[in-house]
Structure formats: C-alpha cells, structure tokens
Specification:
The chain is α+β, with helices and mostly antiparallel strands. Helix 2 packs antiparallel against helix 3. The chain is rod-shaped, with a radius of gyration of 56 Å.
C-alpha cells in the first residue's frame, strides 16, 4: 500500500512539472523595446545628497554712517532689486554738516580772493616804487650836474678874486651854492636808497603773500574735500541693496540708533535667487 502511494506521488510530481514546462514554453517572451515617435523633451537629472544648503551669493548690508533710522522699506523674504533703497537714516544732522562745510568752503574762497586783491595792490605799489626809483635816479643825476657846475663856478670865482675881478661876496655866494648842491645830492641819494629799501620790502611782502596764498589754496582744497565727504555721508543715509535677491535677515527697526564709528553694523542679509543653491 505504501509503495502504491509513493508511486502515485512521484507520478503526480512528474505530471505537474511537465504541465509547468508546457505552459512556460507556450508564453511569448516580453518585448525589450518599445516604439515611439521622435520628439523633444526635458531630461530631469536629480541628485540625492546630504549636507547644508547655501545660496550662491550672500551679502551683509550695513551702514557707513551713524544716525537714527528714519524708515525701513523692506520686510523679511521680500525680493529686492540692485540699488533699491532698504532703509533711510535721519538726514537732519548730515544736511547740517553739509551746510557747515559749504560755509567753511566759502570762507576759504573769500580769504583766497582777499589775498589776490592784496597781490594786485602789492603789484601797483611795486610799479609806483619803480617809477619813483627812475625819477629819483634822474633827480640824482641832475643834482650831480648842478654840483659839478657849482664846483666849476667856485673855482672860476676863486681865480677871478685872486685877479681882483670880483668881490669877496661873489665868491662866498659860489661857496654856498656848492655846499647846497652837495646837500641836495645827499638828500636825493637818501631818497633813492629809501626807494630801494621799499622795493626790497615789497619783494619780501610778495614772498610772504605767496606763502599765504599757497596756504589759502590748501585751505580751499581741504574745505572742498570736507564738503565732498559730507555730501558722500549724506548719500550714505540711503542704504541700498548691492545685489538683486531676497531679504533673508533684517536686524534694524525704525527709530533705532546706529553707531558706525568703530565697526559697520550689519542691518540686512541679502541672498541671491534661492532656486539655485549650493550643497
């Protein structure tokens, strides 16, 4: 009985294997290729990775001048354009500083103009002194000629007195004329020396004036630089976005006071388009 059961089981197993092989052989193999029309499309490439996500570019925006924040014009996650105003500082003190620097520049220019007027006056004085110098030289020459004539007259009258051709009074007059001519020549020479000294003083005044004018020009240049700096600081009262992007952080509120003497405070953080990031 047991042998019959075993034989039946073996026959059943062989029959099942034969049926399975016949069914498998009768099925067609699946197609490995598919046919489709040629077309254009997008190829999506995805990358799976782990790590921190960072924007392509990140900029900290601060203030280069100190002051009270008068207005904040952007909010978090707001998209901004390059050059767009993010916040505005109180301009009152900065504008007052500009006016003060403008006044200092005007004063420096007026001082320079006064020196130029003084130079013109000095030039006129020098021209007059030179004319007086020429006049005094001519006067000295005339006085010398008068003295030479007085000496000749005195010699002639001395000879004539020896020949008893003239009286002693005439000789005394000729002596007085000679002495007066000598005195006149001394006075004219002193006047000429005084003019020479005045011309030397004018030359020294010119050198002093040159130095004062150079100092005035330097003062004007310094005042112009101070005004330019004040105007630049006034422009810094408007804090603008250096790049196009999104406001990721905002660390400032209206009426807040900013101190930028030692270190520029960071007021905003702007990042570029977050659709493109770095891992």
């Amino acid at each position: 009985m047991k042998k019959v059961i075993i034989i039946l089981l073996v026959l059943a197993a062989v029959a099942f294997q034969g049926v399975w092989w016949w069914v498998s052989a009768s099925q067609k193999p699946p197609d490995l290729w598919k046919k489709a029309a040629v077309d254009r499309g997008e190829i999506i490439v995805s990358v799976t990775a782990s790590g921190g996500v960072e924007p392509l570019q990140e900029v900290q925006v601060g203030s280069q001048v100190s002051g009270r924040v008068a207005e904040v014009r952007v909010e978090l996650d707001q998209r901004v354009q390059q050059g767009e105003v993010l916040a505005v500082l109180d301009r009152e003190l900065l504008e007052a500083d500009c006016k003060d620097k403008e006044s200092q520049l005007q004063q420096a220019r007026i001082a320079l103009d006064l020196l130029r007027v003084e130079r013109e006056s000095l030039e006129v004085r020098e021209q007059r002194l030179k004319l007086n110098q020429v006049r005094e030289r001519i006067s000295v020459q005339r006085t010398q000629a008068s003295l030479e004539l007085a000496v000749k007259n005195l010699q002639r009258y001395t000879e004539m007195l020896q020949a008893q051709a003239v009286a002693q009074t005439e000789l005394d007059i000729r002596k007085l004329e000679k002495e007066n001519a000598e005195r006149d020549l001394q006075i004219k020479e002193l006047d000429l020396q005084q003019i020479d000294l005045d011309l030397k003083q004018a030359a020294a005044d010119r050198k002093t004036l040159d130095a004062r004018e150079r100092q005035a020009l330097l003062s004007v240049a310094q005042a112009e630089q101070a005004l330019t700096k004040a105007q630049t600081n006034l422009g810094y009262a408007s804090i603008v976005a250096p790049i196009e992007g999104v406001v990721l952080e905002r660390s400032v509120q209206p009426v807040q006071t900013i101190a930028a003497q030692f270190q520029s405070p960071n007021l905003f953080k702007i990042v570029t388009d977050l659709r493109q990031v770095l891992l």
